[in-house]
Design brief:
This protein is α+β, with helices and mostly antiparallel strands and about 800 residues long. The chain is about 50% helix and about 15% strand. Strands 1, 5, 6, 7, 8, 11, 14, 15, 16 and 17 form a ten-stranded mixed sheet that branches. A three-stranded antiparallel sheet has the order 2-3-4, with helices on one face. Strands 9-10 form a two-stranded antiparallel sheet. The two termini are about 55 Å apart.
């Protein structure tokens, strides 16, 4: 990409309003500039130097622009480049209520008003179906940053709003990613839109003076794209991601009138946006060496999107009213600063490691041939670049020893491998000498750890060392050969301090030997200390065990008390065993049979793999033997018959025939292994299918048997309105009657004119189904807590409204 493509693109989108201040905000004829004019305040007197006009030039101004035009201008090119391997980021910034969420997500009730995210999903997944030369895998994730806490909007536990302690922003060589964030694979537009709408319902919103549905968090919807070429599918692949960011709006508290929790949220929002602006200013300054990305979770997550390997586009959403002119100026200044940032997008191409190894091996062979040609031109035909043989290593070792003894003055070296081997031999000789010195010192001295206070005290008591740790006394009636020597200092001239080794750690030698009694005293004192430590550990362990037993007693008694309750359902593990013996016996039998077949196939596959490895190893041995035979024949001279064909001996002929048989056997076993792998994959699919079926049927049986209220169970009995098992309780997905009718009318009116909207409306319908089910189950739970309310409420009404599926 050229230099113009590397900078961040910034666009302005003006929120449509009836009170647009035409005398304050004016647009250029090319739709790329915007001017702001403010009248001087007469109340501040004649001398008033306050600035009254500003001019900003950006990449485009979107005023009264449709969603189609906004997407074509802002996102279409970026998404197309992402399909070719470039990372992309689109970010909406502006004050609260300026239309950021509308620009990014759009109106979920109307297909024409959908935003950038649904349109980007449609463009990416349409491209995957049309592409014939690549396999494209698409995955999505949805991250929320609320009050400086990370939340996964596509996680089932998000509704608790407790946050995931395991989620964290992590830096790696490939970029920044969020640890613990769930990523979902999608193959159809409807699947991706289902996830988008599900995440939207989990977002935190609130109401204040400027916006009835104000987003209280920053949200990042990410599309991950992985492309593998059909020709080189195992060699290299291209990866990219598109970050679609809906930032929370900056708020002026004097206008929003926020209080309580909304005020706290506004504080976090303004703080994170302030850190984001500091990052933008720092990136635009070429003299800055350090960029403080870790100031907030938002700036850390956007590290790659700002000034990194990414195509970045900013959409500054502003309001057209004169009352919001200060916030408009702030958003336009931010957009101008973003244009100062330059990025370096590159195609994210990854090569397969095995293919790279093979390529490098070929390169090594080629370079060796080049070296051999060079050596032959300079008459160095005896130089070899292969690994050294045992004879050559022994010769180098002999030369090193002679060099150290002074017999020779130089060592013959002709290549780098010999240089490395010379240094290796020097290192081995030094290590051997150190070991010999240490062994001699150990045979003469006893080593005491200076941190072992018990052993030092015993040595002082025996009179071997004084209070300062200096060695005293004599050995076998002879002078110790030195004056007093402290533990941590060097010894005298006649005594050498033993060298520290890895095994000794902080041990140091005492410059004297110990008699048998003294050594026994030291060992006895040390063993006493160790025994006393073990006794303390044993007592501590006993106390911990007693405490654990005391804690375990109430927990063991709890199930007994629970079991006395006749109305409480049994634990699911117990009920599951009962289900497998009764209602689920047939499914359990099929599951066990499939599992046994799968295990047998895996065992057979392992046996074939072992046999293949043995055959491969034997083939390599035969190839080496044939190579040796051919080398020997070449050295002794080859025999040729009348036709000019080389005559080989019987042994070489037998090796060739055996190698041929082994190759045939290898191909046969390899084909069998491939068939077994296909069978294993199919059997694994059957086992998983049976397992899921078993679990789902158990959930239906458990709910119908123990969790449905008594009044509903009477209805489920034979002769009732609903048969047991016909409508599982955890599979309820029905719309309310008016919503269903509305959806059917919409299908008749909209779908014929716009067939591409099928996936959008199907995903919207499923999202509404989930919400309806959640509301109904919440109402049922409240009714169940009040005795008699459920019976009274359902006495004269059909059970379809209970959403029992």
């Amino acid at each position: 990409m050229d230099t113009a493509e590397k900078r961040v693109h910034a666009f302005v989108r003006v929120k449509p309003t009836a009170d647009f201040a035409q005398d304050v905000i004016k647009f250029g004829r090319d739709n790329k500039s915007i001017d702001i004019y403010i009248k001087k305040d007469a109340k501040k007197g004649v001398v008033n130097n306050r600035r009254t006009d500003w001019s900003f030039r950006l990449d485009g101004v979107l005023h009264n622009a449709s969603q189609d035009l906004a997407y074509e201008t802002v996102a279409e090119k970026l998404v197309s480049e992402a399909l070719n391997g470039y990372n992309g980021t689109i970010m909406c910034y502006g004050q609260t209520g300026a239309g950021k969420t509308y620009t990014m997500t759009g109106a979920t009730a109307d297909y024409k008003h959908r935003g950038i995210i649904p349109r980007a999903i449609q463009q990416v997944l349409k491209a995957t179906t049309r592409c014939v030369d690549r396999f494209i895998t698409v995955r999505v994730s949805y991250l929320e940053i609320y009050n400086e806490t990370l939340f996964d909007l596509l996680s089932t536990m998000t509704s608790s709003r407790t946050g995931d302690a395991q989620m964290a922003v992590v830096d790696c060589p490939q970029g920044v990613y969020v640890k613990g964030l769930s990523i979902h694979t999608v193959s159809h537009e409807e699947d991706a839109l289902n996830l988008l709408f599900e995440g939207e319902t989990n977002r935190v919103i609130a109401e204040h003076a400027l916006n009835k549905n104000s987003s209280r968090s920053h949200c990042i919807f990410t599309i991950y794209i992985e492309s593998r070429f059909r020709v080189f599918s195992d060699v290299k692949h291209v990866t990219s991601k598109i970050n679609l960011i809906d930032l929370a709006g900056s708020e002026r508290l004097s206008k929003t009138g926020s209080e309580g929790q909304v005020l706290k949220e506004a504080t976090y929002i303004n703080k994170s946006l302030s850190f984001l602006e500091q990052i933008v200013i720092a990136l635009g300054d070429p003299k800055r060496d350090h960029i403080p990305f870790r100031q907030s979770k938002l700036t850390h997550v956007l590290k790659d999107s700002l000034g990194g390997n990414c195509n970045t586009v900013l959409v500054a959403n502003i309001c057209g009213e004169a009352v919001h002119v200060e916030e408009t100026l702030s958003s336009l200044r931010f957009a101008t600063r973003m244009k100062w940032i330059t990025t370096e997008p590159v195609i994210n191409e990854t090569c397969d490691a095995e293919w790279m190894v093979k390529t490098l091996e070929k390169e090594i062979v080629f370079l060796k041939r080049e070296l051999a040609m060079h050596d032959s031109l300079v008459n160095r035909s005896l130089v070899t670049y292969d690994p050294l043989t045992e004879i050559q290593i022994a010769d180098i070792k002999s030369q090193v020893q002679k060099y150290l003894e002074g017999s020779i003055d130089e060592i013959d070296i002709v290549n780098i491998r010999q240089v490395q081997e010379v240094f290796k031999q020097f290192k081995l000789l030094v290590s051997q000498q150190e070991q010999e010195v240490e062994a001699r010192l150990r045979s003469k001295y006893a080593l005491i750890d200076k941190n072992d206070f018990a052993a030092v005290a015993a040595a002082q008591k025996a009179g071997l060392v004084d209070v300062d740790g200096l060695v005293v006394g004599e050995m076998d009636g002879q002078d110790s050969g030195t004056e007093a020597a402290p533990f941590s200092s060097k010894h005298g001239e006649k005594k050498t301090k033993p060298r520290k080794t890895k095994e000794q750690g902080t041990k140091e030698g005492i410059g004297t030997s110990l008699s048998g009694k003294e050594l026994d005293a030291l060992l006895q004192s040390k063993s006493q200390v160790m025994n006393s430590t073990k006794d303390l550990d044993a007592k501590e362990g006993a106390r911990n065990q007693d405490a654990a037993n005391v804690d375990a007693q109430p927990s063991q008694a709890a199930p007994v008390r629970d079991s006395q309750k006749p109305s409480s359902p049994p634990p699911k593990p117990v009920a599951f065993e009962q289900f497998k013996k009764e209602c689920g016996s047939e499914i359990n039998r099929i599951f066990k049979e499939n599992k046994s077949i799968l295990l047998a196939r895996k065992k057979r596959s392992s046996t074939v793999e072992q046999r293949l490895n043995l055959i491969k190893h034997e083939m390599e041995g035969i190839k080496e033997a044939l190579g040796a035979q051919r080398q020997e024949r070449w050295q002794q001279g080859e025999y040729v018959d009348e036709k000019g064909q080389i005559i080989i001996d019987e042994e070489e002929f037998l090796l060739i025939m055996k190698l041929k048989d082994l190759k045939k056997e290898y191909r046969s076993d390899y084909a069998e292994l491939q068939d077994l792998k296909a069978e294993i994959q199919y059997c694994q699919h059957l086992v998983d299918q049976c397992r899921n079926k078993l679990v789902s049927e158990f959930e239906i049986w458990y709910n119908e048997s123990f969790l449905i209220p008594k009044d509903v169970q009477d209805t489920l009995k034979p002769g009732g309105n609903i048969r047991p098992g016909m409508i599982p309780i955890n599979r309820v997905m029905c719309l309310e009657k008016d919503a269903q009718d509305r959806f059917e009318r919409m299908q008749k009116e909209t779908l014929p004119a716009c067939p591409d909207s099928v996936s959008f409306y199907n995903a919207k319908m499923k999202a509404d189904q989930k919400h309806a089910y959640a509301r109904t189950m919440s109402s049922l739970e409240q009714m169940r807590k009040k005795p008699g309310l459920l019976t009274a409420a359902t006495k004269n009404k059909p059970l379809w409204f209970l959403h029992i599926s």
